[in-house]
Amino acid sequence: MADRQASAVGVGAVTRMMEIQATSETVFAYFIDPGRLVRWMGISATLEPRPGGIFRLDYGDARGVVRGEYLVVEPPTRVVFTWGWEDPEDLIQPGQSTVEVTIEQLDRSSRLTLRHTGLTGPSRVSHAEGWDWFLPRLAEAAAGGS
User: At residue 132, what are phi and psi to the nearest 5 degrees?
Assistant: First the structure.
């Protein structure tokens, strides 16, 4: 993973990089296929992976529901979507932040870079912790783990 301190205190952004033992096509699918997305994050998802299409992820617990829309879908190297919580009390509302994922194919693996921008204060810290929890789960799922 990237330097946690630098990304957690950066100006409105969280950035994470990791190598995943899977092809870029496989990793990309975990951001556009509802069944694959919920293997590493949430309990149900409604996804329309096209510019303007919905991105909605239900965590099924106190975290609530994230809603956004896809801005860019470029298989298998890049996907960008907005991100915000449906709970009106949350600091980050739908459309207020953006997640950009780039995937680079390496010899026998892929390098994933995730950049979450538009975060403020405590939401930056909590989202950094969230990505630190979920991205290893993505790596395991994409590599064929449980």
Answer: -65, -30
